[in-house]
Amino acid sequence: MKESTNVNIDPNAQEIPLLQVRDLQITFKTVNGEVNAVRGVSFDLYQGENLAIVGESGSGKSTTATAILDLLAENGRVSGGSALFNGKDLTKLSRKEMEHIRGREIGYVPQDPMSNLNPVWNVGFQVKETIEANTELRGKDAKARVIEVLKEAGLSDAGSRLRQYPNQFSGGMRQRVLIGIGMSARPKLLVADEPTSALDVTVQRRILDHLGTLTREHGTSVMFITHDLGLAAERAEKLVVMYKGQVVEYGDSKEILADPKHPYTKRLVAAAPSLASRRIQSAVESKATAGTVGDAVAVARDQAAVPTEAPLISVDNVTKIYDISQGGFKKTQFKAADNVSFKIAKGKTMAIVGESGSGKSTIAKLFLKLEDISSGTMTFDGRDVGSWPKRELLEFRRRVQPVFQDPYGTLDPMRSIGASIAEPLVTHGIGDTASNRKTVAELLEQVSLPASTANRYPNELSGGQRQRIAIARALALKPEVLVLDEAVSALDVLVQAQVLQLLADLQAELDLTYLFITHDLGVVRMVADDVTVMRQGRVVEAASTDEVFENPKEQYTIDLLEAIPGGKFEFGTSA
Amino acid sequence: MPSNRHIERYVAPIDETPVAGVDAVDTSQKASSVWGDAWKDMRKRWMTWVCFALIVLVLLAVAFPQLYTRTDPDYKSLMDSLEGPTEGHPLGFNKQGQDVFARLIWGARASVIVGLLATVLTSLIGGIVGAIAGYYGGWLDAVVSRIGDIFFAIPSVLGAIVVMTVLPFRNVFSIAITLAIFGWPQVARIMRGAVLTAKNADYVTASIALGVSRGKILLRHVIPNALAPVIVITTVSLGAYIVAEATLSFLGIGLGDSAISWGMDISAAQSTLRVKPELLLWPSAALAVTVLSFLLLGDVVRDALDPKARSRR
Q1: pLDDT-based confidence at residue A463 (cuts at 50, 70, 90)
Q2: A465: which chain B residues are within 8 Å (Cβ-Cβ)?
Q3: Contacts of A55 in chain B (CB under 8 A)
Q4: What is the mean pLDDT of chain B?
Q5: φ and ψ of B158, to 5 deg
Q6: pLDDT above 80: residue A328
Q7: Domains, chain A
Q8: pLDDT single digits (tens) A361-396
Q9: Identity of the residue in B17, B25, B206 whose CB atom sits nearest the CB atom of A402
Q10: Can you give the pTM of this predicted structure?
Q11: Cβ contact (<8 Å) for A449 and B31?
Q12: What crossing angle do the helices spanning B223-250 and B262-269 adopt, rounded to 10°?
């Protein structure tokens, strides 16, 4: 590339960091007084280097990035410290000076590709707008640059797609456009705030690869803001670990992740799901499989014994077709699930894994009887689910319970936790007020929450706590099967690990069977006995977890496994 | 690579960055429901208390006008026609020789009762219709929404004039019913929208999967979660209905001639506008203050129930 800059300068000269953040403090003014969101963050970033800031939600990682771009919300301000960029303190620049730097010298790739492009303007216009704001190019030259920039970002047919609108682009395409916009003025620094969190793993990999090539060619430094330790290990040389607004560890990323020193980093690294993870074992002695759990080999042997007993759940050639209205009387048919079959033995976990649009959630909805099956059969305990008599629906509902993805939507905000957990008991006419109160307290204890939580409301609890409440509610009727639809996907790694451990304990204790729907192969490795890989409504591969991970047969499965960021990285285990 | 690029590994001192237990429940705060939180938020704002004080003053006038004045608002002494303030008559007399202050106090009753009745009626009709339309959807929704649109298309004051001239009796109830006939579609629309959002929430799906019946889900989960915007529109429209009563009375198709209401006094004050403009001012001011206090209350309630709509403070 003609414009690539040479970053290899005289090694003897003392090089000045491109970005030098020193003791940065950020304060937010809230109704309850001032809150110090970021306290004393310091790091250096040199030209051409990649740095990742990792941390859980609320750790202050995004706040740090927005402060560097001077995009803090109105009630926030930098209350101390400095951020020197090319010798200029970004925290002290006027709005005008900052506008000059933003876009031109510091590019930004926002998190959500779905909402960060303006739907009323075509894509070409939006890229051109940025280019005209940040360079001297106008008219035809600007347009040529738009095409160049988008081609670089990986949209090979950019020329013909300029007049298209964001809704005509997929999520991955939009993210490429945003990367193109971020890189359009050849900035020295690119701030990428969770650039691929909303995307499927295979798309994520392609985008990150491309971003890597592009920034390397132009010598651009990248500051990744991410919650994904694997991504940090794979894409950044330097790592800043943040916790509650403070830096707890800072240094070479591989060094930190292989040998974490701070107790928080240790915990974070230990909880990170990766391909190297092992099935979570419960400390609780299982009734059904007592003695056989212990190591992976035993689990595998357990698998081999499965086919001899009748499966609790059996799905045979299930197809689900949706009629999609095309306006007027036209209708097209869409096969959300196509000839899907699998079996789950009692007390086991079956993971259905796939990217968006693979039909994995459709299978969950069909099995929960929230949708009707188009063809094929699903049996539960030897009885057909599709033709389960209406009168006995309550019995089915008692035995099969769901846990959904969004911890913020799963509980009625108007009702107390106690009322939410007791709802299944009341609905099924089990117990009276006094006995229900006792049951609620027991269930809360089962999900390791204090009994006093019953009087609280969902808005007072964290995402992980809400998800544990949802599990407690699902357990209230002593079901045999839990359908977990992306039940841990929205949680931070530590909380996710805690919930996964809880699920493993409950499974051992209550001999539960799990149908575990997820897009995250790392999580699958940690919880599942068997895996069914789905793509575009079809089953691609189905086998035991160890087999799928160690000896995948289908190319798609191999692609999926390889796309996991930092999948092969050996995380330190000295927790 | 330049030598100073290699950085010293930094590990924060452990006692300066204590690691909390994973995801422990914060038990230091008292439990709080959505309504409790909203009230806590409202309590902190002085505006809430100003509104409450004004509304209490008005409501007292509605319930016990004798607390404010002992003069009969109907008593006419033509000798005093258009006289200025005298001992015991702080605001003087109108053209008919009636005490202005007494009429101001007694006039609150008709205005506020019409406002409250119309609000209750519209919220009930609109709330129920909107909830059913949004929740059950399909043809029911289509029919109900179109009927609502028909009422929307009629300017409410014009419609009310027609209805009021047809109705055989004229009192606060007939006015409230007339206003409700044209007011319910607004509430229904808002309720329908809120119900549509609430019914697709995960907690509703979870309840279906628990085996809870459709009707119970509507009552227990959907309506409570859809109520907030309806409450807001209700407090705001209360003021609007008070104005509507005054409008109808001003036009001479409101309450009967013997009734006392701000609207009628405003209407009567027209003839003496040049001689004594205060006669127009007082009932108008009373009307404005009452309506304003309800509108401001609506604002405060909206801010408390929907923190997103609140401007950054």
Answers
A1: confident
A2: 23, 25
A3: none
A4: 85
A5: -60, -45
A6: no
A7: 19-119+188-270 (3.40.50.300), 296-563 (3.40.50.300)
A8: 899 999 998 888 999 999 999 889 888 888 888 889
A9: B206
A10: 0.80
A11: no
A12: 30
